[in-house]
Design brief:
This protein is α+β, with helices and mostly antiparallel strands and about 180 residues long. The chain contains four helices and nine strands. The strands form three sheets. It has a four-stranded mixed sheet with strand order 6-3-8-7, sandwiched between helices. Strand 7 and strand 8 form a beta hairpin. The protein is globular. About 30% of the residues are buried. The model has no long low-confidence stretch (mean pLDDT about 90).
C-alpha cells in the first residue's frame, strides 16, 4: 500500500498556508515548497540522474541530482538530506544557494508550481540509486550540459532548464571560491 504524500502549500514569500495531497496540488497547480539538490564531484562535474520511467511525471528525463518536497513539519534542509539518501543512496554536506519560484505545465494536466530551494554539495562518493526513483546517472561538465540543454531540451526536466542559468552563475562563483 502506497502512503499518501502531502506537500506544504506556501505563498510567494514561502510562508506556509496549508497542506495538500501531492497529486492534487499538482493537478490544481497550487504553489508548494520544494527543493533541488546539485551534487558536484571534485572535478567540478555535476551528477545528473535519469528519472525512472515509472515516475508520476517526467519519467525518463535527465535532471539534477535529487529533488522533492519537504514533508509537513520537516525542515527543507533536512528533507534535502533525506531524499539525497533515499533517491541516490548517498550523503554530502549541503549548502543552501538560492531559491526560485516557477510554474510550468509538465504533462497530463499536471502543473509544477513550486517555491524551490536549491542546495549544492561536493563529494566524490558514488551514488547507489533507488531504481524505483532513478534509472541511471552520469557526471557531466556544466559547459557540456549548457550545450545539451539547448540542443536536446526534451531530454531534460522543465525545472532544470528553468533554473540552469542561475545554477551556472553560482557554480562559477563556487569554482572561483573553491578552486574547482
Amino acid at each position: 500500500m502506497k502512503i499518501e504524500e502531502t506537500v506544504i502549500l506556501v505563498d510567494r514569500d514561502d510562508q506556509e498556508i496549508g497542506t495538500m495531497e501531492k497529486m492534487e496540488a499538482h493537478l490544481q497547480g497550487k504553489l508548494h515548497r520544494a527543493f533541488s539538490v546539485f551534487i558536484f564531484n571534485k572535478k567540478g562535474e555535476l551528477l545528473l540522474q535519469r528519472r525512472a520511467e515509472g515516475k508520476y511525471h517526467s519519467g525518463g528525463k535527465w535532471t539534477n541530482t535529487c529533488c522533492s518536497h519537504p514533508r509537513p513539519g520537516e525542515l527543507t534542509f533536512a528533507a534535502a538530506h533525506r531524499r539525497l539518501q533515499e533517491e541516490m543512496g548517498m550523503a554530502a554536506e549541503l549548502n543552501f544557494v538560492f531559491s526560485f519560484v516557477y510554474c510550468a505545465a509538465i504533462q497530463d494536466d499536471l502543473v509544477e508550481n513550486e517555491y524551490d530551494h536549491v542546495f549544492f554539495g561536493i563529494t566524490d562518493a558514488l551514488p547507489i540509486p533507488d531504481h524505483d526513483e532513478v534509472s541511471s546517472f552520469k557526471y557531466i561538465t556544466m559547459a557540456r550540459l549548457a550545450v545539451d540543454l539547448k540542443e536536446n531540451p526534451g531530454d531534460y526536466t522543465r525545472w532544470l532548464a528553468i533554473c540552469f542559468d542561475e545554477v551556472m552563475d553560482h557554480y562559477q562563483q563556487l569554482q572561483i571560491a573553491d578552486g574547482l
